[in-house]
């Protein structure tokens, strides 16, 4: 049996040496063959050079290098497209997802589960703000996206080959992997674990990126915000009509015409604000439809190492199958831009 471990990497040079000390040791204990599929998501530090140097000495280390930062979810997708294992695990590079848990996850896989999800029962080294926003995130996602979403389950998961093949058929631009997994409804086991602090470096998901991710998750899975704006509009119309009845009564029966300036201004402001919000929501959905219609590739692989010729063949992706190429961060005077037009990254929240 072959186990593929997919690891997205974005500026992780501080943690990679430690990862290479810990992870292969744990994998050797499992007693099965394995491959490490690293997806470099446009790192600007020495991550890619480090990975390539390891890959040169170890054929089990496989590297896919994106041409720029396409985001965590795109990196996971690419890893799944190219990994060839009978089972596949996705984990962070920063050792927050403990490699010791792999044995338990694999045991569940052998019991016949298609998906084995690691659930955080505690989170070390994260600020109260990150924890509070993560709690809100899971609550909101459960209501707005899919009630089958598991709370405190991130992307640290094991998938059977059958589950990977299902996931590979989802080629949408705005991806929320956890929502897709819930949508599939395959047999899932939950394995609890204590989430450690990052081994080194900083999170790549500040609060604003998490909020953007939450919005991507909601809007790619649900029309709830549009429905809410519709319900809000209905409530406002009922209020508006009631108030109009009162105004007509005042005017025609009581004959007491009031100046009414303040109430008019209040009503205009409230109604206009609501209309603008609704239009903005619709605009955002239309923009997403537009991006899907364009059918742009999900990622561009600029080079790869240690993959068999013809590996992968992903749909809706560009893959330049060369194993020797210039590493972007080493090109002087060249600015690598981060996620300018593809806001589809996913935090671990
Ligand atoms: N990552 C990535 N692309 C990005 C951001 C993050 O490939 O644009 C990787 C990152 O290197 C790490 C994983 O995705 O391996 C999760 O990121 P991070 O640990 O910063 O998220 P957190 O655990 O703090 O939510
Ligand atoms: Mg992390």
General description of the model:
It contains 10 helices and 9 strands. It has 349 residues and is of the alpha/beta class. It has 2 domains: 2-221, Spore Coat Polysaccharide Biosynthesis Protein SpsA, Chain A (Alpha-Beta Complex); 224-294. A 9-stranded mixed β-sheet has the order 7-5-6-4-1-2-3-8-9, with helices on both faces. Helix 2 (47-57) links the parallel strand 2 and strand 3. Helix 5 (128-144) runs parallel beside helix 8. The longest helix has 34 residues, at 261-294. The radius of gyration is 25 Å and the shape is elongated. Residues 92, 94, 96, 198, 348 line the site of magnesium ion (MG).
Would you kindly provide a brief summary of this structure?
This protein has 349 residues and is an alpha/beta fold.
Structural class: alpha/beta
- CATH fold descriptor of the largest domain: Spore Coat Polysaccharide Biosynthesis Protein SpsA, Chain A
CATH architecture of the largest domain: Alpha-Beta Complex
Per CATH, the class of the largest domain reads Alpha Beta
Question: Ends: how far apart?
Answer: 32 Å
Averaged pLDDT = 88
Ligand roster: uridine-5'-diphosphate, magnesium ion
Helix content: 40-55%
Strand order of the largest sheet: 7-5-6-4-1-2-3-8-9
- As a whole number of angstroms, the C-alpha radius of gyration is 25 Å
Order of helices and strands: EHEHEHEHEHEHHEHHHEE
Ranges with pLDDT <50 over ≥5 residues? 332-346
Main sheet makeup: 9 strands, mixed
Alpha plus pi helix count: 10
Strand-residue proportion: 15-25%
Number of domains: 2
CATH H level, superfamily name of the largest domain: Spore Coat Polysaccharide Biosynthesis Protein SpsA, Chain A
């Amino acid at each position: 049996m072959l186990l593929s471990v997919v690891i997205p990497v974005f500026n992780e040079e501080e943690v990679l040496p430690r990862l290479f000390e810990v992870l292969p040791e744990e994998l050797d204990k499992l007693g099965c063959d394995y491959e490490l599929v690293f997806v470099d998501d446009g790192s600007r530090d020495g991550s890619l050079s480090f990975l390539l140097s390891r890959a040169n000495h170890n054929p089990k280390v496989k590297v896919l290098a994106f041409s720029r930062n396409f985001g965590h979810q795109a990196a996971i997708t690419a890893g799944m497209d190219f990994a060839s294992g009978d089972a596949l695990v996705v984990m962070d590079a920063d050792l927050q997802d403990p490699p010791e848990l792999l044995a338990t996850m694999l045991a569940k896989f052998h019991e016949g589960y298609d998906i084995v999800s690691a659930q955080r029962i505690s989170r070390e080294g994260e600020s109260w703000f990150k924890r509070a926003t993560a709690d809100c995130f899971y609550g909101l996602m459960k209501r707005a996206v899919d009630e089958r979403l598991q709370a405190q389950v991130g992307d640290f998961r094991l998938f059977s080959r059958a589950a990977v093949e299902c996931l590979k058929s989802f080629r949408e631009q705005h991806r929320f992997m956890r929502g897709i997994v819930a949508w599939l409804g395959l047999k899932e086991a939950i394995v609890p674990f204590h989430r450690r602090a990052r081994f080194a470096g900083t999170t790549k998901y500040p609060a604003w990126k998490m909020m953007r991710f939450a919005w991507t998750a909601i809007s790619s899975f649900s029309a709830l915000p549009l429905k809410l704006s519709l319900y809000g509009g209905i409530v406002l119309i009922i209020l508006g009509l009631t108030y109009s009845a009162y105004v007509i009564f005042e005017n025609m029966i009581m004959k007491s015409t009031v100046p009414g300036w303040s109430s008019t201004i209040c009503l205009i402001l409230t109604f206009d604000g609501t209309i603008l919000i609704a239009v903005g929501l619709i605009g955002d959905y239309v923009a997403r439809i537009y991006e899907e219609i364009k059918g742009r590739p999900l990622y561009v692989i600029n080079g790869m190492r240690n993959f068999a010729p013809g590996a992968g063949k992903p749909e809706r992706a560009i893959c330049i199958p060369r194993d020797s190429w210039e590493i972007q961060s080493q090109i002087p005077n060249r600015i690598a831009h981060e996620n300018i037009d593809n806001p589809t990254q996913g935090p671990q929240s």
